[in-house]
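WARN no homologs supplied; continuing
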Amino acid sequence: MNNFFSRVKLPLFASLLFANLSLILAQNQAVNPKVSTFTVRSNDNWLNPTIIELNGTDKINIDFDFLDQNAHYFYYSVIHCNADWTPSELSESEYLDGFNNQPIEDHKTSFNTYLNYTHYHLQIPNDNVKLKKSGNYLVKIYEDNNPENVIAIAAISVFEKQVNIYPTIKTITDIDYNKGHQQIDLRIDTRNYSIRSPQMEMKIVVTQNNRIDNQVILNAPTTTNSTGFLFEHCPSLIFEAGNEYRRFEMITHRYPGMNVEKIRYFDPLYHAFLYQDKSRANKSYIFDKDQNGRYFIRNSEVTNYDYETDYFIAHFSLKADSPFGNGKLYLLGEFNQNRIDPEWEVPYDISNRQYSREKMLKQGAYNYLYIYVPDDNKRGSLTPAEGDYFETENEYTIRLYHRGPGERYDRLIGYSFIQSNQSN
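OK structure emitted
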């Protein structure tokens, strides 16, 4: 296994990528292909959004594996960003209590695994780095004390509770009645905070299940009153409802887990062959308690999941008598940072009449979906492979940014998180 991966350095690519931060669009991203199982989570709760309160007690935990038998030394820097994730005008001393270019000191080499890797852990804020302003932050992780050799980027947000956001999710929408959509209405209470010109000063970002391709950005309320602003009957706040995430588990090589048909060993790794999936469009809705795309690393035979858990090759397949159309199908979930990524495309196999793809994943319990993207379109749709059902439990995150006259950065002054089965 010593040569499973060759050493890869991407200084030019990583530098160009980071130079245009707006392209990242608030998503965590593993830049170097040796970075795997890259997670950014709030505290120890794998279901929490990656948003913490300014001067609060919550922490952001960043974890990843670097797939190599050799030791590597990684550093990180924190960059304050505007609402669109481009660097703000603030100097480092204005937003940071501490210093950038810090080493990641918490790392452990894998033990008793077929695939050699080192697990790295970073927590922010920490004794060396504390955040002084609200807003967006990008954590740039790089190798050899060289900021141009970026291997991964984490996107986190820090809010200050200046306004209250009250979202409502409706399944009786402006385009259908309890069918395939969910509509968001927002009430913003600004009685304790002044926003004089919302169209000029305010930006509201709404995301569904941490996806970016269908993210909505608003700034003009439909109604203004003495208590704040209302966003009602906004066409852009009507979302395809989708379906519950599919799930599978590969927590041991001794027997197949949930939705796994068989486990086989082919040198150098074990392979998990999932049962063939079928399209769930135009079927009856079936409730399933999913985790909205997230995964949990787990190995039933060890105690230290971070560095004693192995990697399997997971085989995905989706039955389809013909392609869905002139577009491409992708896997979607936290395992790929909810990105529509060419590395996660699921090609169509004409001879077997199915979409199929294999991907190397760390042992654990996973959520996933198949998302279809028509040609010449960046927004994906779950409709062809998963269907759309108004009953689907989705989570929505709402961020409110404000930049008043003369201010030099976008403050994150309000935040709300809601699940569709918690709203009438």
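Helices lie at 11-19, 92-95, 198-201, 305-308, 383-386.
OK
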